[in-house]
Each structure stands twice: as structure tokens, then as C-alpha cells.
Write a structure and sequence with these properties.
CATH architecture of the largest domain: Alpha-Beta Complex
Organism: Cladophialophora psammophila CBS 110553
Keywords: Metal-binding, NAD, Oxidoreductase, Zinc
Structural class: alpha/beta
Enzyme class: oxidoreductase
Distance between the termini: 18 Å
Bound molecules: nicotinamide-adenine-dinucleotide, zinc ion
Protein name: alcohol dehydrogenase
Radius of gyration: 20 Å
Number of strands: 16
Helix content: 25-40%
CATH class of the largest domain: Alpha Beta
GO cellular component, one term: cytoplasm
């Protein structure tokens, strides 16, 4: 297949998206060029666009970090990866290879070069870190050692959301240390991460309390995703009591997975998690704080363990669950030119499951 000189991309410049053509990069040492077929739209990219976090993102910046595609060319030192291989490109797209999500030489979609921030380091590896390595494009550079191997037979559109949302919630559930038969509350259950979290939790033998807003999300959680209970935070008058009541003994869930995009649940979860339970903050709403009473926290022996994407091992495990047909979360396909429409829905909290960009549209 001939690789074009130019490609379409959604470029965030000055806090606005510009749909335009940019050069297709060439892979350097240790890099592969991936023809992105599908790319999931994660709320993280919308946070970056809005400047929601304590540091400014690169400008220009191309979002997208759930890319599923095919290797179309490769640089030197990429043994083991061949042209034609099906791979996934993730949020952490360049690491020191010591199996951590927090090594210094790594790159994520914020790719802030030369600032000393945690996302830096490898800016020298790729020629143009802000533009070259993202999945809001048709072609994207990736570190050969960091790409995920997509198992044979996977539906490439359906697998795309696993590459951030799936890995992240799978790792979060492991972090909660919930055991089969125990109960986990998933807060933000109707969104991209939440819908996958419900599926992974069921596959891991857990009972699920899904918490989100609106009837559609309740219907999807109970009828499609296997939740045991749905609590509508827009209707509940006492969310702490409602969550506790949803467990058979009234003591609350053993784990809480926080993937909501608003801060309130991060202040409430410590009140309804059961004694010895674990609260796992994952969502990244702006200006959010985790809150817990010291007195009740000590008496309950509360654990709060934040969780950040996942390692290469978590990736392989999360993909294995998917390849075995255990994870079927709803997604809708749209064209790259329609990205702004998804962001508008995200802003209103109206995304049901995941939107996936179909690069052929
Ligand atoms: P999304 O927009 O698809 O879903 C967010 C959901 O939260 C929506 O369904 C919304 O209705 C719900 N919500 C908002 N306020 C709520 C409340 N008070 N109670 C219950 N539910 C509420 O977003 P997403 O793509 O699933 O991402 C979720 C969050 O996870 C984002 O903040 C994202 O940046 C973050 N994230 C973190 C990591 C990590 O490694 N820690 C990885 C990926 C995404
Ligand atoms: Zn993400």
C-alpha cells in the first residue's frame, strides 16, 4: 500500500479543533508507522482541549490514544514487529521499558516536551512530538516496543476502546482487590470507561452497582452490561445511603471505581465504601479533590489507591479478556470530521458507551 505524503488530522490549536491536512511522519530508530483504522474518543482528550489540568497541553496538539491499526512501515531496531501486524497505540506511547506507567522517558498524548513534567522525556525520539504520534490522524508513529499486540480475530473497531478505557478500568479493578462474589460500585458507569468497567467487573465475577445519570444509562447498564443495580445520581436524594442499601448487608461495596468526570463522587466515595474497602480514583475532572474523614477513614481502615492506565502486562491481559469474547461494550462509529460532535455530547455528560472514529469515513 502506498503511504501518502499528507493526511487528515484533528489539530487542537489555541483551544479549538482544526480539521486539516498535516504531513505523514517517517519512522525513526525503534519506531513503527501505524495506519490507524479506528480510534476511540476518550474524555481525556476533551480535558486536554479544554485545558482542564494544572499545566497547559502542547499547542498544537492532536488527541486520540485508543488507536487500532496496521503497521505500514518501520525504522531500524524494530525486530519482532512486521509490516502488516495488527497493533494498538496507547496513551503511553514511549517508555523506558521497565514496565511502569511512571517512568521518566515516556510520552503520552499531552507530550509536553522539555518541561520536566512527567509526560516528557522521549521528545527526541520522535521528530515532532505534538503532531507525529497521535491517533486523531490516519497515520501515527509509535515506539515498536510499546505497541499492543492485537490478537487475531479481534474486531478492530470494537477493540480500539480497550487500548485506553479497557486497560485503565481492568487495572483499576485489579487495584481494588475485589474478589469474585464481592461488590464494586462503578461511578460514571454509562460513559466509555464505565461501560467497559461493568463488563470487566462481570467477567471477573463481581457484583456491580452502576452509578450515573439518566434513564438511558440505567437501561444500558442493567440490560446490556450486566449491572445488578443502577443508581441515578440525578434522582437520588441520598447517594451514600442508596449505595449502601444496594449491598445485601447494607455495609456498602467492597470497591469503588471512580470514572466520573465531575468532582462530587470523589468526595463521597469514602462514605459509602465498606470497612476495609478500597476507593480507586481514576477519572480526572478539573479542580477535583479526594475527600475522606480521618476519623471514619481510620475506623473503617479505608484504602484509597489511585490508578493510572496500565502496564504492558495489564494491556496484554485486558486484550486477552476481549479476545475471549468476554467484553462487549457498546460503541458508535463516526468519521474523523465529526469529532467536535462527540465533544459536545461529552460536555453534557450524554455519551453512552464509546464513540470510535472510523478513519475510512
Ligand atoms: P465519559 O464522558 O465517556 O464518561 C463520564 C461519565 O461520568 C458520564 O457517563 C457522566 O454522565 C458520568 N458522570 C458525571 N458526573 C457524575 C456523577 N456525579 N456521578 C456519576 N456519574 C457521573 O468519559 P470517559 O472517557 O469514560 O473518561 C472518564 C474519566 O476518566 C475522564 O476524566 C478521563 O480523563 C479519565 N481517564 C483516566 C485515566 C487514568 O489512567 N486514570 C484513563 C482514561 C481516562
Ligand atoms: Zn484515555
Amino acid at each position: 500500500m502506498a503511504i501518502p505524503e499528507l493526511q487528515w488530522a484533528q489539530v487542537n490549536e489555541g483551544g479549538r479543533l482544526h480539521f486539516k491536512q498535516i504531513p505523514v511522519p517517517k519512522p525513526g530508530k525503534g519506531e513503527v508507522l501505524v495506519n490507524i483504522l479506528y480510534s476511540g474518543v476518550c474524555h481525556t482528550d476533551f480535558h486536554a482541549l479544554n485545558g482542564d489540568w494544572p499545566f497547559p497541553p502542547n499547542d498544537p496538539l492532536i488527541g486520540g490514544h485508543e488507536g487500532a491499526g496496521v503497521v505500514v512501515s518501520k525504522g531500524e531496531l524494530t525486530e519482532g514487529i512486521e509490516i502488516g501486524d495488527k497493533v494498538g497505540v496507547k496513551w503511553i506511547n514511549n517508555i523506558c521499558l521497565k514496565e511502569t506507567t511512571y517512568c521518566v522517558p515516556r510520552r503520552n498524548s499531552l507530550a509536553i516536551p522539555r518541561t520536566g513534567h512527567s509526560s516528557v522525556g522521549a521528545s527526541s525520539v520522535l521528530s515532532d512530538p505534538s503532531l507525529a504520534n497521535r491517533m486523531g490522524t490516519e497515520y501515527c508513529l509509535a515506539q515498536a516496543a510499546t505497541v499492543a499486540r492485537i490478537p487475531d480475530g479481534c474486531n478492530m473497531a470494537a477493540v480500539a476502546p480497550i487500548l485506553c478505557a479497557g486497560i485503565t478500568v481492568y487495572k483499576g479493578l485489579k487495584t481494588s482487590e475485589c474478589k469474585p462474589g464481592q461488590t464494586v460500585a462503578i461511578v460514571g458507569a454509562g460513559g466509555g470507561l464505565g461501560s467497559l468497567a461493568q463488563q470487566y467487573a462481570k467477567a471477573m465475577g463481581l457484583r456491580v452497582i452502576a452509578i450515573d445519570g439518566g434513564e438511558e444509562k440505567g437501561k444500558m447498564s442493567l440490560e446490556e452490561l450486566g449491572a445488578d443495580t443502577y443508581i441515578d445520581f440525578l434522582k437520588s436524594k441520598d447517594i451514600v445511603n442508596d449505595v449502601k442499601k444496594a449491598t445485601a448487608d447494607g455495609l456498602g461495596p467492597h470497591g469503588v471505581i471512580l470514572v466520573s468526570t465531575s468532582p462530587k463522587p470523589f468526595e463521597q466515595a469514602s462514605e459509602y465504601v465498606r470497612p476495609n474497602g478500597t476507593v480507586v480514583p481514576i477519572g480526572l475532572p478539573p479542580d477535583a479533590n479526594i475527600k475522606a474523614s480521618v476519623f471514619w477513614g481510620v475506623l473503617k481502615m479505608l484504602r484509597i489507591k489511585c490508578s493510572y492506565v496500565g502496564t504492558r502486562r495489564d494491556t496484554a491481559e485486558a486484550l486477552d479478556f476481549f479476545a475471549r469474547g468476554l467484553i462487549k461494550a457498546p460503541y458508535k462509529l463516526i468519521g474523523l470530521g465529526q469529532l467536535q460532535e462527540v465533544y459536545a455530547l461529552m460536555e453534557k455528560g450524554q455519551v453512552l458507551g464509546r464513540y470510535v472514529l472510523d478513519m475510512s469515513k
